[in-house]
Amino acid sequence: MTDFNHTNREPNFLEYKGKYKGILGWITSTDHKRIGLLYFYSMMFFFLAGVVMGLLMKYELISPGEQIMGAQTYNGLFTLHGLTMIFLFVIPGVAAVFGNFFLPILIGAKDVSFPRLNLMSWYLYIIGAIIVLISQFIGDGPPDTGWTFYAPYSLKTNTNVVAAVTGAFILGFSSILTGLNFIVTMHRLRAPGMGWLRMPLFGWALYGTGWIQLLATPVVGITFLMVIAERLLGIGFFDPAIGGDPILYQHLFWIYSHPAVYIMILPAMGAITEIIPTFARKTIFGYTAIVISSMAIAFVGYFVWGHHMFTSGMSSTSRWVFSLLTFLVAIPSAIKVFNWTATLYKSSINLQTPFYWAIAFVFVFMIGGFSGLVLGSLATDIHVHDTAFVVAHFHYIVFGGTGFAFFGALHYWFPKMFARVYNFKVANTGLIIFFIGFNMLYFPMFYLGLLGMPRRYYDYLPMFHSANILSTVGSWIMATGLLIIIINLIRARKGSGKEVDDPWDGKTLEWTIPSPPIVENFEEIPEVKHGPYEY
Amino acid sequence: METITHQHHADAHRDDTAAKIGMWLFIFTEILLFGGLFIVYSVYRHMNPVAFHLAHEELSITMGFINTIILLVSSATVAISISALQKNDRKLTMLMLGITLLLALTFLVNKYFEWGGKFEHGMYPGSELMKNLSNGDMLFFSLYFFMTGLHGVHIIVGMVLLGITLYKVKTGAVNSGKYALLENSGLYWHLVDLIWIFLFPLFYLIH
Fold first, then answer.
1. Which residue of A has its CA nearest to B130?
2. Fewest Cβ atoms closer than 10 Å to its Cβ: which of A257, A287, A437, B117?
3. Domain count, chain B
4. Which compartment or compartments is the protein found in (chain B) (predicted)?
5. Among A444, A398, A438, A328, which residue's Cα sits nearest to residue A91?
6. Helix or strand or coil: residue B176?
């Protein structure tokens, strides 16, 4: 392994000292790696807060009747849980942390195209987050609309919807600017010799994501502005009492919020696509198919929003069209799964923690995907709409997909970011416990949903009791696994692990440079002569 | 080894093409922002065709028409300013930018009187009069105030951008060899103009 003689190296981005010292040196830095870590630390904070809220809700549901909170508190809590997890964790998610940190390195660039804009995006993210949090404490109490802010309730509730919606609007801005930055970066800063079809697939995933961020986010932005105007000025857009159409609100909301699911999952798939060839010691199967599927998901994903509204009132023609398109969008996702598994065929797999995460991802993502088909078909959707089944489905996709990929990517790139390896045994044990807990937590909800247990209620009928106990206990097991994983990584970060440059023998550009990377990533911009996964 | 500062890190790489692609992408975002409103407009007009038709007669076509001409001319002056700077004619550039800013201001003054007239008659968001309107009228005027208001905000943002550019042309920071900022401000201004080109017929000219 590489000799660690730091005196011969340029300062790495962690120890580098600029104009300012300490925390100021971080929050004024335009270095994409530092910004990636700023996102990382702030997002972990919000994620853990969201986990605690989730645990509290699961505890409330351990048996029928009121346990620790009443209906209004529960309503506020699932709203805040949704806002935090969706807008502050999974939407920026893999792209803001690992995209920022690794995209420029993967394409052989010194930074993104607009480093200052990049820093501004982080500030917008933090400002948006603060406003969302403020909405909890001022005015007439925390919003209780759910993260969807459906009209007309969001127009009528006395709770503090305006602040929460303003926060979400600003977070959208942050997301748009990040997407814009990444797209331009990929157009302009790929290293010499790196044609579009030599770009690592994580880059392609971010490219598709960037376009969704650009073209979908403004639609929800304007919708939120209309909600604000309607609440503050009393002008009519969505309130049926003054001629507005609440269904139109749902359309506008999902025109963004369904593609937003792909903002969450595409970068996650991209990260998995980086992990699998590295540990299969084999080039990725079907590079071009994965590229096309990423772009196809981004494109078709625009036209499926109506499947959130099968029971809201739509013509039967639109319903079957949306249903058909929903089935179509499953195809490119399935293509990726086939490509990942085909990559493993006849490979010599190096069984390591990131690989286990990738496999766990494929497993839970497939359960999430198949249950999505149940919801995408008209007849079955009527039965399980607004039940625990839906909650199980999107947690399998959003948490099981994006969340697992996030931790997979973290375990994969951690040695590159901090030049340390973590304890593999502890990491694997944590993963196994986490995986068991995750499935125990969410799988019973499929069953509960089929039985007819509605979502978003703090109470339920005694017939749902046993599966709910299982689910709540699962939440504790999952939290235990999560704790083990995080403590293990913190210990490694503090320097208990040994120093390494590249523990996996990876082939993409980030593994050709020392760990942690130097400020400008490359001493000399590399020249690329072949595709990204040449084993 | 010499210390590398972050400033150096950020600015060493000047890429005008990137700046321009970035601006175009931002314009796509803006178009979709207004796109959401155009959807809302179409749906409600489809639902209330008569009310929309009658409500639009409350608006002054003359005022709207004058403002349309103002914005079209201002788009031309911005375009001339770019050509002028490419030919290294700083004076003409500054003159044209100045005229553009003046036209933008005139647009806002017109808008002020237009809105002011409505306000005087008790017609403003949240007013008693507006609350008592029929559903179709209410939607029309809600959209009118919201869309022209948001467009007005864009005019102000465009003016700030053009103002900064004018200042930088004056100091020489934007010059015949480095005019990405001017081009981008110009692009943004054209967008603001373009959106008005759609707003004008939708609110003032409908039948």
1. A235
2. B117
3. 1
4. Membrane
5. A398
6. coil
Domain of B193: which CATH number? 1.20.120.80
Instruction: Kindly state whether residue B6 falls inside one of the protein's structural domains.
Output: no
Helices (H), A84-200: 93-94, 100-106, 115-134, 153-156, 161-188
Q: Which residues of B touch A189 (CB under 8 A)?
A: 18
What is residue B205's predicted lDDT score, i.e. its pLDDT? 92
Structural tokens at position A296: 């196809």
For residue A8, the model assigns a pLDDT of: 53
* Angle in degrees, CA B7, B13, B14, rounded to 5: 110
Confidence (pLDDT) at A235: 85
The interface pTM score, or ipTM, of the predicted complex is 0.93
pTM, two decimals, is: 0.94
pLDDT digits (tens, 9 = 90+) for B124-171: 888 888 888 888 999 999 999 999 999 999 999 999 999 999 999 999
Give the tens place of pLDDT for each residue, A292-309. Answer: 999 999 999 999 999 999
Mean pLDDT of chain A: 94
A385: three-class secondary structure by DSSP: coil
Local confidence band at B1 (pLDDT 50, 70, 90 cut-offs): very low
Say if B1 falls within a structural domain.
no
Q: A227 to chain B: nearest residue by CA?
A: B146
Give the CATH number for residue A140.
1.20.210.10
Residue A22, domain member (yes or no): no
Domains identified in chain A, total number: 1
pLDDT at B3 over 50: no
Is A530 domain-assigned?
no
Q: Confirm whether A1 is domain-assigned.
A: no
State which residues form the domain around A356: 27-512
Structural domain that includes position B86: 16-204
